[in-house]
Amino acid sequence: MKMSESTALVITSIAGSDHPVLNDYASTCKQRGIPFYVMGDRISPTDFRLDGCDFYSLSRQRETGFELVNDLPERHYGRKNIGYLVAIRNGATVILETDDDNYARAGFWEARQRNVSAHRIDQAGWVNVYAHFTNANIWPRGFALEHLQDPVRPLSTYSTETLDAPIQQGLADENPDVDAIYRLTLPLPMNFDRSASVALGAGSWCPFNSQNTTWFKDAFPLLYLPSHCSFRMTDIWRSFVAQRICWENGWHIWFHPA
Predict the structure, then answer these.
(1) β-strands 160-164, 94-98: how paired?
(2) What is the pTM of this model?
(3) CA dihedral (251, 252, 256, 258) positive or negative
(4) What is the Cα–Cα distance from 91 to 86, expressed in whole angstroms?
(5) Could you report the per-residue pLDDT of 158-203, keeping only the tens digit for each?
(6) 98 - beta bridge partners?
């Protein structure tokens, strides 16, 4: 698969059009022919204009005709749901998502493949995936803290297979997605190993976020971000729902380097 008009990038932001991260994404998307949708919110600038970016203010979101618009709270990360729907309606078959505080490394723009080669981890219960990308004591936001002391089985003991992974989670270097407990007690920045490749299947849990995530068309029904909970938990709840449904389809969640 090549990056093309079938690939779209979705972000939600309240920043202005001079925001350096948004400008970086807009410039690259324009160069590569990738539709870039930014969903605004109540306090977004009314004069937002950015070449290479298709911006949706609240009023423009209401004009989409999607019934969901009326059920989404304002000042909430769930506005991103409209971006997914716009991308799908405009023909996207692969949706990339990130946030306006994450710069893309070069690998972010590489072609995506749904079938990936990875260490397969099934029936393992809670799996701290970060532990397979670093020897440091670190865990993803949303991980069950009571399982932080569980022994970590070496990745080399798992088989490497080609797996169907319609949802793919990239890690984030320097300031990864960790919880408040980590931020209060342990150091940042943090950079991860670039060689690991891990896929979780049936019976294996690990939260994944929305900072560097790829969704293939078959998984689009699982994109929905719960919109009546804390914005810190919306993508985490989504990840657990999505994983459980992936098990029933024989799909894996692929975790790959930043």
Answers:
(1) unpaired
(2) 0.96
(3) positive
(4) 9
(5) 999 999 999 999 999 999 999 999 999 999 999 999 899 999 999 9
(6) 212
